[in-house]
Amino acid sequence: MKKLLLLGLLRGQKLHGYGLVDYLKSHSTGGAAIGKSNAYRLLRMLEEEGCVESRVERDGNRPERHVYEVTKAGEALFLKLLLETLGEDATADQPGIAVLNYLDELDPLQAARQLEKRRQSVLQRYEELKVVPEKVLYLHPAMDLGVRQLEVELEWLTQKLKQLHKRATNVA
User: Fold this and answer.
1) CA-CA distance, 99 to 90, in Å (whole number)?
2) Full domain range(s) for residue 74
3) Into how many domains does the chain fold?
4) pTM for this structure?
5) Which of 68, 6, 63 is nearest to 38 (CA)?
6) Around 38, how many Cα atoms within 13 Å sit in the side-chain half-sphere?
7) Separation in Å, CA 32 to CA 1, 135, 147
8) Of 86, 106, 138, which marks where a domain is finished?
9) Burial level of 169, CB count in 10 A (0-12/13-18/19+)?
10) pLDDT digit of tens for each residue in the chain (172 aa)?
11) Are residues 68 and 24 in the same domain?
């Protein structure tokens, strides 16, 4: 999935490593989160496999940067991985979601405090993505799906918080 994501980002555009990492950091990638060191490791691996090429460029007084672009072999691998993964059900494959199965193990007020933190974080991501123009969401269906998933999660969190608060008042 991570190779697919990197190749997809590099298709049709040349990116330097920092720009690629910055993009990955600022855009949700779901379960395929790629950190800085992992991104560079994958880029080196893809380069060794002949799927990307890099060259050193300098822009004005800035330091030299490695700029990456997809090769024909990388394009072929991208299409192969895309076809293989497109049919998989990965929507619910999110680390951190399974912990919700154990909410009843906690004091309802403790659980509610933590879920409220989670809700605020989800709300922040939702507000950042909600300003993305409809045209962009149309061109990036995964981002559109992400917005809709955040909407559903916010609704679920709101309901669960009500339930926890009700349970806490019944316990007291």
Assistant:
1) 18
2) 2-86
3) 2
4) 0.58
5) 6
6) 11
7) 6, 24, 17
8) 86
9) exposed
10) 788 888 888 887 777 666 666 666 655 444 456 777 777 888 899 999 999 998 888 878 888 888 888 999 999 998 888 888 766 655 555 656 767 877 787 889 988 989 899 899 899 989 988 888 888 888 888 888 889 989 999 999 999 999 999 998 987 6
11) yes
